[in-house]
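Practice problem 4.
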C-alpha cells in the first residue's frame, strides 16, 4: 500500500496564531493571523504565483500592520514548522513495513526548501508533490491526479492522510482511501482497517 501524507498539521506543526505571537505580544494576534494567513495571497504563495516579498508588500498595502512586523511574521514561518514526533514515528514505521511513502502538500517554495534542509524525515518519501512546484493546490483534484500519474500509482492502492476535511473529501471522490487526521494515534488506529500492523 502507498501512504500519502499531508505535511502541515500532520507531520509538522502549523499554527499561524503562534507564529504571530512569536513576533508581537500585543493583543490581536488572531486578527493579524487571519489577515496574513487566511487571505488569498497566502494561498497564492502555496500555488507558487506570489513570492514572500510580494505578499509582504501587498499585506502592508491592505492592512494597518507595520511592514517590519509583517516581514518578521512571514519570515518566522519556516522555523515554526517543527516535526511532530509521534507522526514522524508513524511515517518511519510505515516505511520500515515496506509501504510506499509520499507527500502531497500545499506549501510555498521557501518553506519546502527549509524543510528539505532541516527535516530529518524529508528523505523518507519515495516522492513529494509540493503545490508551489506544480502550480496546483489542494483540494483541486488535478494535484492528486498529478501525484498518481507521476509516480505510477492507482487510486485503490493509496491511503491519503490530511488534517483538512475538504482535502480528504476530494481524495475520497477520486477513489482514494482517506483518513481525516487528528492525531498520530488516531491515524494509526484508522490505518489498521486498511493494512496489517505488526504488533
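Answer key:
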Amino acid at each position: 500500500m502507498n501512504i500519502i501524507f499531508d505535511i502541515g498539521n500532520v507531520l509538522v506543526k502549523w499554527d499561524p496564531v503562534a507564529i504571530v505571537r512569536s513576533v508581537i505580544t500585543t493583543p490581536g494576534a488572531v486578527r493579524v493571523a487571519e489577515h496574513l494567513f487566511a487571505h488569498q495571497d497566502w494561498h497564492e504563495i502555496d500555488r507558487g504565483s506570489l513570492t514572500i516579498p510580494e505578499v509582504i508588500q501587498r499585506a502592508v498595502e491592505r492592512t494597518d500592520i507595520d511592514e517590519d512586523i509583517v516581514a518578521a511574521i512571514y519570515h518566522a514561518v519556516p522555523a515554526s514548522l517543527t516535526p511532530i514526533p509521534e507522526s514522524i514515528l508513524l511515517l518511519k514505521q510505515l516505511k520500515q513495513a515496506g509501504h510506499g511513502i509520499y507527500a502531497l502538500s500545499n506549501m510555498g517554495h521557501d518553506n519546502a526548501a527549509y524543510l528539505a534542509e532541516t527535516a530529518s524525515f524529508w528523505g523518507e518519501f519515495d516522492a513529494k508533490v509540493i503545490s508551489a512546484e506544480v502550480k496546483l493546490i489542494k483540494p483541486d483534484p488535478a494535484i492528486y491526479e498529478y501525484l498518481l500519474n507521476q509516480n505510477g500509482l492507482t487510486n485503490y492502492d493509496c491511503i491519503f492522510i490530511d488534517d483538512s476535511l475538504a482535502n480528504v473529501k476530494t481524495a475520497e471522490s477520486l477513489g482514494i482511501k482517506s483518513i481525516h487526521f487528528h492525531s498520530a494515534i488516531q491515524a494509526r488506529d484508522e490505518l489498521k482497517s486498511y493494512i496489517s500492523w505488526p504488533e
